[in-house]
């Protein structure tokens, strides 16, 4: 792994190009590191709890003006954001690769996802429909109306440093909400870049966008907590670990605020006897090794029918042995670095625990080149397990795939659902009974259930999220926008009488 790209210099050039002021990322107390080389690439100024409160108050004022701007006009701002993102795609994608360690196509893919959600939200800005509902009272009309909700607080994880913001921001902005974003402390530079891109769109949009419509709060989890506790934040959309959700959820519940919780996954695939094994192999390889196993939808558990186990698993092991691991800025390697040493240590601990449970490990060793001991590259690990136990039951945020044999379909469905998380799932089969059963009420219990597609790589058109300890939130497509608005039921009496519902009489 040569390191001829000067990561620091390139970061500075990209931030300049994207319009981020130098003093926003130099001389501050919070250091951003590139997982590519492990070196510091920015020193940001973190905000205080008092700054956070003031920013939220200002965002609330912005909300009060923005909610009165017609929704299709709000959509115009998001259309401009989509245009600015198209223009910035190469630079922002590269910055994602530098700060989150993603390979080039995934860095660019993440920005494409931002563009896609902007397009979706622009259309949505003319489709924020309510219903007209049949009423039992003559001369009355009953309907529901959707109104802007308030300040939307966004907390995001390091592994989708820009897309998760845009899923929330694009919907919230067309919904008439203002936004306040607490990005991951591991990826704050990409957040500054997103705000700079939105600022360009705002400058083109004109004066009916209020000041402080969107704010980025640089800081650690305590800033997230201040946001969670602030009474003027109507909704917090929090993406990250289940541990984080366990802290955030009750705090929001305590003040009856809304929550969208997008938490950890422990996603599984089932390979059935009739599966197209070539297709399954590719889908499994991408799902399990892609993004170095650092997606919430990463494939972590694989159940293979015993009639095809010996055909599939040796091929899979070969793919694990030969997959290219390396610097995403300089090579076309398919697997980039882990985010930091803690991620590497967590992976090694899980592999050791798997061995104790009888697991046989292929891969998993650290790849160090050219004395770069501050970066953590690793060969993805495939672990053949005698049963689902120990670390298999938990999410380890690293490229570990646990592979298990099965023989009975009902039993494997039970095993599939026997973990705490419920995000994504997939089945590989050409048998329609198995496919439909997997998608049925007594099939996969996850928010995402796929047939002949891997667990990762969702499109923005569908609602994204999962059940159980994944938190139950839904973002992105379908009717996820409803979480960013408040619903009012309105009944209008255009008769000359005042009939009461349910035949109640109250004559005075
Ligand atoms: P993390 O939980 O460590 O941090 C996520 C964010 O939460 C950060 O911005 C952090 O500062 C903030 N935070 C942490 N504790 C907080 C608290 N008590 N109050 C308020 N904010 C707090 O997660 P991570 O390591 O950055 O990301 C990896 C995790 O995120 C994995 O578990 C992964 O599955 C999950 N994830 C889920 C989804 C999804 O859509 N379901 C998407 C991406 C990542």
UniProtKB/TrEMBL annotation:
Positions of the catalytic residues: 262
Molecular function terms from GO: aldehyde dehydrogenase (NAD+) activity
InterPro entries according to UniProt: Ald_DH/histidinol_DH, Ald_DH_C, Ald_DH_CS_GLU, Ald_DH_N, Aldehyde_DH_dom, ALDH7A1-like
Pfam families per UniProt: Aldedh (PF00171)
UniProt keyword list: NAD, Oxidoreductase
Alphabetical list of Gene3D superfamilies matching this protein: Aldehyde Dehydrogenase, Chain A, domain 1 (3.40.605.10), Aldehyde Dehydrogenase, Chain A, domain 2 (3.40.309.10)
Presence of keyword Oxidoreductase: yes
Enzyme kind, highest EC tier: oxidoreductase
UniProt xrefs under CDD domains: ALDH_F7_AASADH (cd07130)
Keyword NAD: yes
EC number: 1.2.1.3
Aldehyde dehydrogenase domain boundaries: 30-487
Family: Belongs to the aldehyde dehydrogenase family.
Record note on quaternary structure: Homotetramer.
Name this polypeptide is given: aldehyde dehydrogenase (NAD(+))
